[in-house]
Specification:
single chain; alpha/beta; Rossmann fold; 7-stranded mixed beta sheet; 9 strands
């Protein structure tokens, strides 16, 4: 992995921190919220996150025999739908940098009987421990904004996707309606940390998660980043006026 020049900073929410500090603090956030991560997602989105993820899985057009990397897969929401679709001859790798989140996802998937075609790997998106051109599909749901060096991660994802394979990034994005944006800002920046404090006793983590959405590249910028990494046929689909966007790119 390339070394980061000294005095370079990145965003941790609205704070400017060193890249190493961001990586450590993001790990602390997910260590803190792992046990109630799914509950908070349901409360924060009114359950809509489940529909967004189902939309992404449908758009993925998974086929039997596919090798799929569910990167930053956390509690396994996408993997539980993808694993049956790839079948016995396929493979799903559930990968996340955070060990506690992987424990939650592993236990959840095992309880649902998803075992034979599932592999659990702790991995940093910026330095993936997989061969070149290995996967037919990589999915990344609500995780890219937490990556310290997004360009490195996109380059690594491109490296491990076979020609003809695709990347799907599902992420909170830039709301297009000014009125909706004001309401969304009031909810996510003010009410969300209070909800986090009530449910998980951790307002700070959910303040970061709300702020990280504002610092994430908007739709058009992320599209350009994917193209710069080598992906072609790139496009995005806005959901709920851009609260969430699904980006798709293909390695030709």
């Amino acid at each position: 992995m390339p070394e980061t020049p000294p005095n370079v900073t990145t965003d941790f929410g609205f704070e400017a921190v060193s890249p190493s500090e961001k990586t450590a603090r993001v790990r602390e956030v997910f260590d803190s919220v792992a046990d109630r991560y799914d509950l908070m997602n349901d409360l924060m989105s009114g359950g809509l996150h489940r529909l967004w993820k189902r939309f992404a899985v449908t758009a993925a057009m998974v086929r039997p025999g596919f090798r799929v990397l569910d990167l930053a897969g956390g509690s396994g929401d996408l993997a539980r739908f993808i694993a049956p679709a790839v079948g016995a001859k396929g493979e799903v790798v559930l990968a996340d940098i955070n060990f506690r989140m992987l424990e939650v996802g592993r236990d959840r998937l095992l309880n649902q009987g998803i075992v034979n075609n599932l592999r659990i790997v702790q991995a940093n998106a910026e330095a993936l421990p997989f061969p070149q051109r290995y996967f037919d599909l990589v999915t990344l749901a609500f995780g890219l904004r937490n990556v310290t060096h997004k360009e490195r991660a996109l380059a690594e994802i491109y490296r491990v996707i076979r020609p003809g394979g695709r990347l799907l990034v599902l992420e909170f994005s830039a709301v297009k309606s000014p009125m909706l944006r004001r309401l969304y800002d009031a909810y996510s920046l003010k009410l969300l940390p209070r909800l986090g404090k009530w449910v998980t006793r951790d307002a700070a983590s959910y303040r970061y998660l709300a702020e990280s959405i504002r610092m994430h590249p908007p739709q058009e910028v992320l599209l350009g980043m994917m193209q710069a990494a080598g992906f072609e046929r790139c496009r995005f689909h806005n959901l709920m006026a851009g609260i969430v966007a699904l980006h798709v790119g293909t390695r030709l």
